[in-house]
Amino acid sequence: WVVMTLLTANALGSLLANAISTSSMRLGRVVHARIVKTLDSPPPPFLANYLINMYSKLDHPDSARLLLRLTPSRNVVSWTSLVSGLVQNGHFSSALLEFLEMRREGVFPNDFTFPCAFKAAASLRWPVTGKQIHALSVKCGRILDVFVGCSAFDMYCKTKLRGDARKMFDEIPQRNLATWNAFLSNSVTDGRPMEAVGAFIEFRKIGGHPNSITFCAFLNACSDGLLLSLGEQLHGLVFCSGFDTDVSVCNGLIDFYGKCKKIHCTETVFAEMGTRNAVSWCSLVAAYVQNHEDEKASLLFLRSRKEIVETSDFMISSTLSACAGMAGLELGRSVHAHAVKACVERTIFVGSALVDMYGKCGCIEDSEQAFDEMPEKNLVTMNSLIGGYAHQGQVDMALALFDQMAPRGSGPAPNYMTFVSVLSACSRAGDVENGMEIFDSMKSSYGIEPGAEHYSCVVDMLGRAGMVERAYEFIKKMPIQPTISVWGALQNACRMHSKPHLGVLAAENLFKLDPKDSGNHVLLSNTFAAAGRWAEANTVREEMKGVGIRKGTGYSWVTVKNQIHTFQAKDISHRMNKEIQTMLSKLRNEMEAAGYKPDLKLSLYDLEEEEKAAEVAHHSEKLALAFGLLALPLGVPIRITKNLRICGDCHSFFKFVSGSVKRDIIVRDNNRFHRFVGGTCSCKDYW
To answer: Where are the PPR repeats (predicted)?
Structure first.
């Protein structure tokens, strides 16, 4: 303090600048007090400007305004200090009001004031105000300054005035690197990746040297446009330019390769990074999730916790998506706890991911609780809960939430994915009437053109209701080309309702669309087998062998004490195999005594009755169930995940077991959830 009394005005100004750079309001107030105590009032204009700048930048706008009003010799620097601080802290309306007040006093903006005003207008999406500021910059002769011109261009881009933006860009006499970066970034943000690519090529032709921002913008363009070849070429340029050690550029490469499904390249870039930040870890977790590598994403998150990587809401939401993808409820709950500890559980990203995770893990009550606790909800949040209801077959709840959306309710308007979830809920509940009404309203009431997913849901819905011929007629009237999912839904309906003639037709179309997919061949074989047409079933399987197509292996897994135990049909490799087989035999005897009869139609080979019974008795989900009963304590639900669809015999068997042993059994297959409680299942039918 004694030293500070001896400081000159210039030294006090330097201390105020230091207070700004270190965000130290305490230091700033101490210096301000020393200025008041030791210098005449009012202080020198340059010190007054320092004080206005300090209070404004450190987000004390009222103090900054008061100082400005008490400064008799305020000039453009004084006003710019206030306006720039307000913009920096997100007070855009206030910034424009102060800009207006400055003009009323007859002060003309300078090259630093105009960019701040343009940014405020752009952030508020006020194109008219932006144009007025543009006109003033022309009148003042400042528009030819490269920074002012670049700010005006950025404003036009953000306010969606593309024509004016392009004209502004063309009129900038000397475009610097920041101008080109603004063009690239805005083109990507506006959903025009090819325009960004063209601009980058033009920039290189005139001898421009990109920086890290340029590389990241171009990589984003390649990611959005899935332009793998161009992105790989840019990766080579990154090496040649010496930016291969730049953290931001490497993060952009991780994101680019992840979106282009080159997960090995993503891992290589991450592994070779000398320095990583939180974004690097988060980008790789997101890339794993995008490529359905949910287990790797979860393991990477756990590794990041060990290395004390800073947690972000995006990292947590990505990890929760991984937990949802693999039905990892225990890990999902741990991540939820970590989100609470980090105070991010109620952000829009994490909250929506929690709703989705609990819904996909079969905990619809927890999903509803996460939804109710969110202070702010958006369309993604509502879609997540509707999707959770759809997985559970709770059509009434899904429709009730749908009715809260615009224009029926006060919520956000539904989008493409909303209708996929709602139609899926109607399909799984067999609610044909509501489903068809909602489908018909998509274009007429909401202006949304139905896509392949919506048509697939309708075909599935009609098929579940036994209206197989109507489903086929619906396909024939489709205005778009039927996709694999549409024909697959029809073929599955033919299998369930013994319509082999239409099943063959659906299979033929599936073979044309994807001749190498084993699932299509297996489903046709199953259709013939279910109808007792063994010769045709065997012929299909022989044809598969002839062209080298192999059926995908079915797996079921159950988690016990944070360890995943995996089973496949007739599996005897588990260390507790003897106990599992004993438990399975005991269950089968008890269930048969209670009235259970194996569904031998689901043995898809022409075998004797006893052989068929043995065939269906050792499916992977039954082995997982037997192990769960042995390893999990009483009262704990048995949660089984299966990569393929649960078979009808296992579905029937699980209902008997849940009633006999008084245990809740929750199965998530590749189709939906099946919750078995007290001899019943949450789904109205097996599909």
So the answer is: 75-109, 378-412, 415-445
